[in-house]
Every structure is written in C-alpha cells, then in structure tokens.
Amino acid sequence: MGLLIKLSNKKIEDLEIYFEFTVDKILEGKLIAFPTNSVYGIGGNPFDKNLINRIYEIKYRDRDKGFLLLVADLEEAKKIAEFNKEAEILAKKYWPGQLTLILKQKPENKFPPELTANQQTIGLRVPENKIILTILGYLKKRGSFGGIIGTSANFSGEPPATDAEEISKNFFGLIDLIIDGGESKSKIPTTIVDCTGKELRFLREGKISKEEILNYLKEYKGGIE
Predict the structure, then answer these.
(1) Which of 28, 29, 81, 114 could be 103's S-S partner, Cβ–Cβ 3.0 to 4.6 Å?
(2) DSSP secondary structure, 134-193, as one string
(3) Which domain covers residue 201, as residue numbers?
(4) At 87, phi and psi to the nearest 5?
C-alpha cells in the first residue's frame, strides 16, 4: 500500500519536510505520483533501470515508447540535451510551462537505454506546477540531477488522471507515494515539439497552439534581424 500526502491548499514555504521526504523516496528508487498543471504524472529517478521497467509494466506501455523527463530549469536540461537556436528560444519563452521539447541527447548521458526506448533523443519540460517544480529544485540542491521521469498517470490508451483520488483507485497498491496537489488546472496534455531536425515537427498540439509557437518564432527572429 502506497502513501498519500495531501499538499493542496497549503503554502509552499510550509512544505519543506514533505519535499525532503519526497526527494528521499525518489533517490531510493520509489515510484511517485504528482500533480502538474495539465494532468497528473507518475515517475521517479531516470537513472534507475528497475524503476523504468516497473513503470512500463504498470502502465502496460509499449517498450518502443520512451519516457519524457521533467527538469528543474534550462540549466539542468542543457546538462543532458543539445539545444539548437529554435529550441533555446522556445525554452526561454515557454518554460516553466506547457511545452515539451524533443531534443538530441548528449553522448555522455548515463541513462539506461530503456528510458528513451534506445533512441538518441529525449523529451524535456520544465513544469510550472509549484509542487513538482519545487521538488525538482530540491533534487538539484542535493547535488543530484534535477529531473525525474514524467509520464501521464494512466494505463496506456486510457485518459490520464487529473486528481489524486483517481490515481489511488486506478493504481491501488502500485505506487509508493502519491502527492495530492488538488485537481489539475487545465486537464489538457502538453504541446510536444520535435526540435531535432531542420524544421520543427509538432507531435502533439495542446494548450499552446502550433500557430502561437510559429508566430512567436517569426516575431522573435524578425526583431533581431
């Protein structure tokens, strides 16, 4: 049976003991569920092969589909991924926020190949939800990599959970720690943009539209020419 911690309607500055406890669990290889401003996610230490395999099994997820990571900030993202000009522009504009970027991994990465389904690319996002963003910051302060696996809290092919109660029912006994941050705000999955080619590829359009992103890039580039 997993543990559920209710953090909704509490001030971030009053939650240090819970954040430290959560970081301990992540570093121990435990599976956690957590809020984001889109939908709830599950994840943990991206360097832990056993945890990665456990998530595949729990979600009934195809092994040819890797996992995205949530990171504390752009600095942490640059430790593991290569940013071209467009990717950096978008990260600085939309992070923290509802945009996931697909980037080329740095060759020196030590992630198990199962994390990205043996791909040389990786999906990254800096979340704007204060609870999970603070936890990522605590990881970084500990001297660990400030990032965790961030996959939607659902069985593959089913709608993602938008509150902790739904996770408790669907994943009863399968998750070590559930962080209850209240109901998700938008309930819309993030926009995913592949930045690894010569042109951007929009893999999923969420709260941030393709049109908005392309217009912003056009205006940005026009302003520096």
Answers:
(1) 81
(2) HHHHHHHHTTS-SEEE-EESS-TTSPPP-SHHHHHHHTTTT-SEEEE--S-SS--PPEEE
(3) 3-224
(4) -60, -40
| Number of domains present in the structure of the chain | 1
Dihedral pair phi/psi, residue 94, rounded to 5°:
-110, 0
Beta strands 201-204 and 121-125: pairing type? unpaired
Q: For tokens 């697909």, what's the residue? A: 102
Q: Is 205 exposed, middle or buried (0-12, 13-18, 19+ CB in 10 A)?
A: middle
CA dihedral 155, 145, 207, 213 (to 10 degrees): -140
pTM: 0.95
The CA distance from 140 to 201, in Å, is 31
- What end-to-end distance do the CA atoms of the chain give, in Å? 58
Digit-coded pLDDT (tens) for 113-151: 999 999 999 999 999 999 999 999 999 999 999 999 999
Please give the DSSP secondary-structure letter assigned to residue 29: T
Distances (CA, A) of 176 to 2, 31, 32, 69: 4, 5, 6, 19
Q: The domain spanning residue 199 has which CATH number?
A: 3.90.870.10
By the 8 A CB rule, do 213 and 191 touch? yes
Beta strands 99-105 and 191-194, pairing class: parallel
